[in-house]
Write a structure and sequence with these properties.
Elements lengths: L1 H35 L5 H14 L3 H10 L3 E4 L4 E8 L2 E5 L6 E6 L3 E3 L4 H14 L6 H13 L6 H10 L3 H16 L5 H14 L2 H13 L2 H51 L6 H22 L7 H23 L8 H23 L15 E4 L2 E4 H23 L1 H11 L1 H6 L4 H23 L11 H14 L4 H22 L1 H18 L10 H4 L1
Antiparallel strand pairs: 1-2, 1-5, 2-3, 3-4, 6-7
Helix pairs in contact: 1-2, 2-4, 3-4, 4-5, 5-7, 6-7, 7-8, 8-9, 8-10, 9-10, 10-14, 10-17, 10-18, 10-19, 11-12, 11-13, 11-17, 12-17, 14-15, 14-17, 15-17, 18-19, 19-20
Length: about 550
């Protein structure tokens, strides 16, 4: 019982002392604020800023933010320091510590505490140290990143304390790297600086390279040589990561080309029809996505994250239905006349573009991205956006589904039979006109679901499909007409090749070079990478 009474008494004493402690802290901060009213140059103001940061109080961040933004004022009548916000011809004043309102003042009755760019940089640096104690690990990580980019030897004690108490491994590593950068600009000994160089070399990115390069330029002897070796190591590593980044960009572009071309590979391969309206099937899929999202926004906004999943079957049916109508209404009368099918489908593409322009207007339409497609993440030094990653995965899923249909279903068997020898397939009882019709519908439907995916990375407009039709034909011809694996390899090859040529030749010249290379390749292999086989072909 005696213990309980003692414990209660101790708690009471502590609670009674808290207001006085808080009052003491507030008094110290107000004394520092009063010094801002009497500073006569930027050096004096910087001294006050560093003293405020050394106080380590949460309220300091509010004061320094107002100072950096030019919102800290001194009232001439009593030298009081306030934050101010313009309110017509006057300013609304508030207490810089707790934000409580402090009335208004005419602009003539107050003076702004002046700052310059150097002082703003100092404020940013010390604020980075203030956020090291934040409860949010994201804030601490951001502070460590800021301190790495702008190292300050005076921040070493704060960094040591932060590292000692940090529990998050990722944040702790970032703090150690920020400390290493600060060590390099400090007066510490050679051993400490060697250890710091090793820490930054292990980080191996552009921020570490910047700090080590700057240190190498100002150091001499063995330390300079160590820094030079680390710089060379980082440059080699970054070059390898850059190659990997270009490969990823190439795969990403290749998946886009594959989505656009895979439907064309089916129709062109089975039917021999040069379908110039294929890009418009992609466009119809994109506009179907727009219509679905508009309906969801109006009737069921909670389902927006599911909008693309809902749009996929809708786009397949819309584009596939239009493709079936085109084949039954026009193309079936033009088989064996490729030039006429080219001109006819080009006319259809113009009609579809004008129809969409009449219904939806000529301007771009907004197609939103679900939350699960927003943002990016780091894989080593690779930056991977979620939208591109999902498109690559979706492309692979569509491709594997088509391979399964072509290789493991009776419908796929009929399609392959018609591709290899149409007359023999007809004599075996296969209704080749209906194979043609549903093959064209399937290729158009796949182009439609490609439009759903591509609407996430391009502007949806009546000319949406025109940007993909030429690339689609290049992929199909390069890979081998009617061969899905050839289309896959052709798309990925052209995508990666484009991304490696662009840094040296530019986007437009890079595409021209790719086209020239394909022409030269076709001279050697007229039937593409994987030539179609069959008696009809050999004949």
């Amino acid at each position: 019982m005696q213990f309980v009474r003692s414990l209660v008494l101790a708690i009471a004493v502590i609670c009674a002392s808290l207001p006085s402690l808080a009052h003491a802290d507030e008094a110290g901060l107000r004394a520092l604020l009063a010094r801002l009213a009497t500073t006569t140059n930027f050096q004096e103001t910087e001294s006050v800023v560093r003293d405020l940061a050394a106080a380590g109080e949460p309220a300091v961040e509010r004061i320094l933010s107002a100072l950096a933004d030019g919102n800290l004022y001194v009232r001439k009548s009593d030298q009081g320091v306030f934050t101010g916000k313009e309110d017509g011809q006057a300013l609304s004043l508030s207490d810089p510590l707790d934000g409580t309102a402090a009335g208004t003042a005419a602009k003539a009755d107050i003076a702004k505490v002046k700052v310059n760019n150097a002082l703003r940089r100092t404020i940013r640096d010390v604020m980075g140290g203030l956020t090291l104690g934040s409860a949010d690990p994201t804030v601490r990580l951001s502070a460590a990143s800021t301190m790495l980019k702008r190292p300050d030897k005076t921040a070493l004690p704060a960094l040591d304390v932060a590292i000692a108490r940090e529990a998050d491994a990722k944040v702790k590593a970032a703090l150690a790297q920020a400390r290493a950068a600060a060590v390099l600009v400090s007066d510490l000994g050679e051993a400490e600086k060697r250890a710091a160089i090793a820490v930054l070399a292990n980080r191996g990115d552009s921020d570490a390279l910047t700090q080590l390069t700057a240190f190498q330029a100002t150091s001499t002897g063995a330390l300079s040589e160590t820094a030079a070796r680390s710089v060379a190591q980082i440059e080699t590593s970054m070059a390898a990561w850059q190659v990997a980044q270009n490969v990823w960009y190439g795969i990403s572009l290749g998946s886009v080309l594959l989505l656009a071309a895979i439907g064309l590979a089916i129709t062109f391969g089975v039917m021999g029809v040069i379908n110039m309206a294929h890009g418009e099937m992609v466009m119809l899929g994109a506009y179907t996505t727009f219509v679905v999202q508009q309906a969801i926004r109006v009737f069921a906004p909670d389902l927006f994250d599911w909008s693309l999943a809902i749009a996929l079957p809708a786009a397949f049916l819309v584009a596939g239905g239009v493709g079936l109508a085109i084949e039954r209404g026009m193309i079936r009368f033009l088989y064996g006349r490729p030039l006429e099918t080219l001109l006819a489908t080009w006319g259809v593409s113009l009609i579809l573009q004008q129809a969409v322009r009449t219904i939806f207007g000529p301007t771009n339409q907004e197609v939103g991205a679900p939350s699960w497609m927003a943002g990016a993440f780091q894989l080593g030094q690779l930056t991977i956006t979620w939208s591109r990653l999902w498109i690559v995965l979706f492309c692979l899923a569509v491709f594997l589904l088509l391979v399964f249909i072509m290789k493991r279903t009776s419908w796929g068997l009929r399609m392959r039979a018609v591709t290899q020898n149409r007359r023999m397939a007809a004599s075996m009882g296969i209704r080749t006109p209906w194979v043609d019709a549903f093959t064209f519908a399937l290729g158009s439907g796949i182009a439609g679901i490609a439009g759903v995916a591509l609407s996430q990375i391009d502007n949806v407009s009546p000319n949406f499909g025109q940007g993909y039709i030429i690339d689609s034909f290049m992929v199909v011809v390069f890979g081998g007409v009617g061969n899905l694996w050839g289309t896959f390899i052709g798309a990925m090859t052209l995508g990666v090749l484009n991304k490696f040529l662009e840094p040296y030749a530019g986007a437009v010249l890079g595409k021209i070079l790719v086209l020239v290379l394909i022409i030269l390749f076709i001279q050697k292999r007229p039937r593409g990478l994987f030539a179609p086989k069959g008696r009809a072909v050999e004949a």
